[in-house]
């Protein structure tokens, strides 16, 4: 599978409420159209990662009710994927008193890390 667009996925970790956005474009056979993990691209799929599932009903960001073990599984995925793929941004958390992952005001706008804009 090939694509002319960036392939991005997002997932949370227990240390940060803001989901990290990873550029998985270097693995189009996995994350591109027709790939086995394409369902993860273009969204925060934290719940599916925490459950290690591809079931459509779990492809979402809501971690409400997740057990400590499920958070640990998600943390393992976040560590593994962030070691392999570059982080290009974060998703802003819903205002519910999330743990800050960047300095105050540092996430006022969407920006690709390393971009000139």
Automatic annotation (TrEMBL):
<dbReference type="InterPro" id="IPR036400">
    <property type="entry name" value="Cyt_B5-like_heme/steroid_sf"/>
</dbReference>
<keyword id="KW-0349">Heme</keyword>
<dbReference type="GO" id="GO:0016020">
    <property type="term" value="C:membrane"/>
</dbReference>
<protein>
    <recommendedName>
        <fullName>Cytochrome b5 heme-binding domain-containing protein</fullName>
    </recommendedName>
</protein>
<keyword id="KW-0256">Endoplasmic reticulum</keyword>
<dbReference type="GO" id="GO:0046872">
    <property type="term" value="F:metal ion binding"/>
</dbReference>
<keyword id="KW-0408">Iron</keyword>
<keyword id="KW-0479">Metal-binding</keyword>
<dbReference type="GO" id="GO:0005783">
    <property type="term" value="C:endoplasmic reticulum"/>
</dbReference>
<dbReference type="InterPro" id="IPR050577">
    <property type="entry name" value="MAPR/NEUFC/NENF-like"/>
</dbReference>
């Amino acid at each position: 599978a090939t694509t002319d667009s960036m392939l991005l996925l997002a997932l949370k970790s227990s240390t940060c409420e803001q989901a990290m956005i990873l550029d998985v474009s270097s693995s189009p056979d996995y994350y591109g159209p027709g790939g086995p993990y394409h369902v993860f691209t273009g969204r925060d799929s934290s719940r599916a990662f925490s459950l290690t599932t591809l079931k459509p009903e779990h492809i979402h960001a809501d971690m409400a009710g997740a057990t400590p073990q499920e958070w640990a599984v998600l943390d393992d995925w976040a560590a593994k994927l962030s070691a392999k793929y570059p982080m290009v941004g974060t998703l802003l958390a819903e205002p519910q008193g999330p743990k800050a992952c960047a300095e105050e005001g540092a996430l006022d706008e969407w920006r690709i890390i390393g971009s000139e804009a």
